[in-house]
Design brief:
Blueprint lengths: L2 H11 L7 E2 L3 E2 L2 H11 L4 H4 L1 H4 L11 H6 L1 H4 L13 E14 L8 E14 L2 E12 L7 E11 L1
Antiparallel strand pairs: 1-4, 2-4, 3-6, 4-5, 5-6
């Protein structure tokens, strides 16, 4: 077991249960939705055809659920973090999700932001797994777009 991993585990465990930290707003544009459709080959009209999408209960195009999920990578970088720099950190990797729920659609042109709340920290040999409940809020709406328990693994020397 790595001393660096043990120290990081101790520092991260203090974060469990603290109030969720809030990130910055980010606009979801039609261009971004179209680019995601091209990258994933998911060109369903509710995402890429504003005229047809306007005739649906959504009233216009919406972002792909998986685009919203993918934006967590960027959105989490805007969330303030009061953890110290960790000695011996080799890399951080996306380890997966325990749970993902798409609660509300994200209308194209709306702004979203993420909140993060640490719910679990586990020491595993030379690594630390941090599970955070990530919530993506839609500006001006009561219900979030997405709630996910995201696992990040930090690997130490």
């Amino acid at each position: 077991m790595s001393d660096n991993a043990t120290s990081a585990h101790e520092a991260m465990t203090v974060q469990i249960g603290k109030e969720a930290a809030v990130g910055e707003w980010f606009e979801v544009t039609q261009d971004r939705v179209n680019d995601f459709a091209d990258a994933t080959l998911d060109h369903q009209f509710i995402h890429v055809d504003p005229e047809r999408a306007a005739q649906t209960p959504f009233g216009g195009p919406i972002a792909h659920g998986f685009l919203t999920l993918s934006l967590l990578v960027h959105l989490q970088t805007t969330i303030p973090d009061d953890l110290p720099a960790f000695d011996g950190l080799l890399m951080g990797v996306n380890y997966g999700f325990n749970k993902v729920r798409f609660i509300s659609p994200v209308p194209v042109g709306s702004r979203i932001r993420a909140t993060a709340k640490t719910i679990e920290v586990t020491l595993k040999d030379n690594a630390v797994d941090q599970v955070r409940t990530m919530t993506i809020e839609i500006e001006g709406q009561d219900k979030p777009a997405l709630v996910a328990d995201w696992i990040a693994r930090l690997v130490f020397a």
